[in-house]
């Protein structure tokens, strides 16, 4: 009876509490979730962006001729024989889910008195849409990110999306200038710690990427030059001397699920045990041979480990770091190149214990080389430097980003080496494209592949698995989108991943 009395009292108490808290209010929709503060969503969105970019960057590292796989695994015919379908390479779903997070921040920042997040969220939105276009071509943009009000969004023309991204970045800069980042919320910004000036420089640098990506498209010169001059007139400049990265020492932890995503995938686990996948990616023979031939061994030793991989000392090869100990793997080779006798991905990307590096989304080297291309193509734009000065600074920043001494890059001035010595290079635009390709090694395979599709520089070997010279120029719309938005996917026509080029991929 005593137990029954206690239970009865507890029930009455709970019922009274429930009534007071309106837990029994039948007008409350149980399917409606409470909203989150935009600053929390923004931090998680940045972390998710880094995680989402790992896989397309890996694919880009292969298809740009920088990485291949070791023969410790059965050869991936999906990647190296290009036998894939719309069930493969589905980056679409993760990117759009991530974009909805940024749109939530944009839509709700005002009501939470966090207006300082709108500009950065718009910049990240532009970055993700740029990558979606560079993967798929036409994508939902104007009709996307509207929730239940647009369950089957129409697709926008890819060139029009590119133009809208420039406008979005302009809006972002206006937002950032109007709203100082509140000091209490700088921890939510795991990119620049609330530094609005750097966010604006990032926006301008991303604009240059978008503009230069379409520089070979007929009829775009006037538009591109106008937009470049607008960037210069804005006055904030570009990212210099450092790279744009997500996370870093104050965010990533030596805990399962909280490591830098690259370190976690190809490097080591939280205890320091080497991942099995560390044996998968290998540096290509083409990249190693090119760097040896051009006396670029300082960067080579940062891009790759000598045969035998990382030794007992973190960041140092097990074997002597001399050029003869660096052996690349032919692209797509299926035998004869085991992990023990080939060069693994090097210390510019993976060092045991360095689980808390930032995930790089844009390098200062890329920015400088985009400026070099802009000045070389359009000498009359108002950029203050010369094509040569930007080119040489691009190589210096690549040295720095890869972990070599930036000052050592000066050795190429007057060296007479084609594609390294600006004056001696027979084709300046080809030299710039070549240096972009090297600068992206290990740090941004996605951009390396995009630049290769744009220019065809360098002339990388075909996969050993493929008898002709066909190469993927895009990926396919995923079957998840075909299932939920079939009419709009069908409206894009027949997609052939060998021949259906993106608008900026003119040849």
3D architecture notes:
This protein is mainly alpha-helical. Among the domains are: 38-252 and 357-363 and 440-463 and 472-490, Alpha Horseshoe (Serine Threonine Protein Phosphatase 5, Tetratricopeptide repeat); 261-341, no CATH class. Helices cover 44% and strands 3% of the residues. It is built from 17 helices and 4 strands. It has helices at residues 2-20, 38-63, 77-80, 92-108, 118-136, 158-178, 196-213, 221-234, 261-267, 285-293, 297-303, 364-377, 387-402, 428-439, 445-455, 479-484, 486-490, and strands at residues 67-69, 244-247, 281-283, 358-362. It has a two-stranded antiparallel ribbon. Strands 2-4 form a two-stranded antiparallel ribbon. The relative contact order is 0.14. Residues 1-28 have low confidence and may be disordered.
Helical amount among residues, as a percent range?
A: 40-55%
From the coordinates shown, what is the CATH architecture of the domain at 38-252 and 357-363 and 440-463 and 472-490? Answer: Alpha Horseshoe
Main pleated sheet: 2 strands, antiparallel
CATH classification, class level of the domain at 38-252 and 357-363 and 440-463 and 472-490? Mainly Alpha
Terminal-residue CA separation: 87 Å
Rg, Å, rounded = 25 Å
Q: Can you tell me the CATH topology of the domain at 38-252 and 357-363 and 440-463 and 472-490?
A: Serine Threonine Protein Phosphatase 5, Tetratricopeptide repeat
> Looking at the chains present, what oligomeric state does this protein adopt?
single chain
| Uncertain parts | 1-28
Give the CA-based shape.
globular
Structural class: mainly alpha
Organism: Emticicia oligotrophica (strain DSM 17448 / CIP 109782 / MTCC 6937 / GPTSA100-15)
Keywords: Signal
Protein name: SusD/RagB family nutrient-binding outer membrane lipoprotein
Signal peptide: 1-20
């Amino acid at each position: 009876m005593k137990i029954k009395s206690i239970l009865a009292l507890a029930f009455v108490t709970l019922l009274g509490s429930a009534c007071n808290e309106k837990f029994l209010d039948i007008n409350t929709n149980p399917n409606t979730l409470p909203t989150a503060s935009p600053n929390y969503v923004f931090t998680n969105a940045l972390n998710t962006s880094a995680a989402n970019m790992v896989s397309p960057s890996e694919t880009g590292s292969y298809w740009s001729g920088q990485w291949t796989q070791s023969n410790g695994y059965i050869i991936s015919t999906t990647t190296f024989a290009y036998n894939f379908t719309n069930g493969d390479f589905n980056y679409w779903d993760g990117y759009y889910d991530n974009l909805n997070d940024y749109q939530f921040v944009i839509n709700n920042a005002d009501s939470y008195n966090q207006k300082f997040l709108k500009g950065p969220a718009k910049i990240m939105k532009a970055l993700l849409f740029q990558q979606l276009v560079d993967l798929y071509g036409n994508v939902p943009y104007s009709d996307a990110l509207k929730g239940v009000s647009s369950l089957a969004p129409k697709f926008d023309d890819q060139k029009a999306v590119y133009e809208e991204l420039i406008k979005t970045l302009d809006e972002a800069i206006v937002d950032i200038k109007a709203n100082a980042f509140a000091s209490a919320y700088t921890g939510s910004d795991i990119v620049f710690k609330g530094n609005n000036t750097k966010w604006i420089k990032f926006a301008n640098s991303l604009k240059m990427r978008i503009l230069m990506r379409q520089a070979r498209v007929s009829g775009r010169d006037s538009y591109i030059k106008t937009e470049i001059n607008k960037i210069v007139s804005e006055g904030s400049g570009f990212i210099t001397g450092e790279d744009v990265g997500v996370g870093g020492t104050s965010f990533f932890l030596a805990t399962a699920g909280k490591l830098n995503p690259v370190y976690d995938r190809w490097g080591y686990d939280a205890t320091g045990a080497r991942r099995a996948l560390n044996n998968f990616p290998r540096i290509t023979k083409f990249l190693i041979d090119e760097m040896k031939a051009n006396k670029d061994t300082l960067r080579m030793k940062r891009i790759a480990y000598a045969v035998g991989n990382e030794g007992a000392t973190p960041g140092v090869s097990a074997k002597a770091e001399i050029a003869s100990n660096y052996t690349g793997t032919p692209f797509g080779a299926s035998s004869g190149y085991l992990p023990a006798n080939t060069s693994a991905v090097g210390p510019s990307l993976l060092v045991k214990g360095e689980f808390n590096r930032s995930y790089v989304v844009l390098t200062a080297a890329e920015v400088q080389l985009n400026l070099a291309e802009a000045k070389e193509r359009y000498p009359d734009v108002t950029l203050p430097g010369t094509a040569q000065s930007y080119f040489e600074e691009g190589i210096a920043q690549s040295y720095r980003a890869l972990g070599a001494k930036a000052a050592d890059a000066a050795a190429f001035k007057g060296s007479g080496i084609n594609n390294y010595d600006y004056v001696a290079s027979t084709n300046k635009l080809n030299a710039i494209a070549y240096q972009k390709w090297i600068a992206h090694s290990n740090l941004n395979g996605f951009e390396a592949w995009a630049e290769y599709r744009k220019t065809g520089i360098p002339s990388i070997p075909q996969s050993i698995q493929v008898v002709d010279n066909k190469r993927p120029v895009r990926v396919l719309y995923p079957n998840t989108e075909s299932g939920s938005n079939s009419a709009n996917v069908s409206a894009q026509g027949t997609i052939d991943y060998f021949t259906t080029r993106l608008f900026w991929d003119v040849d």
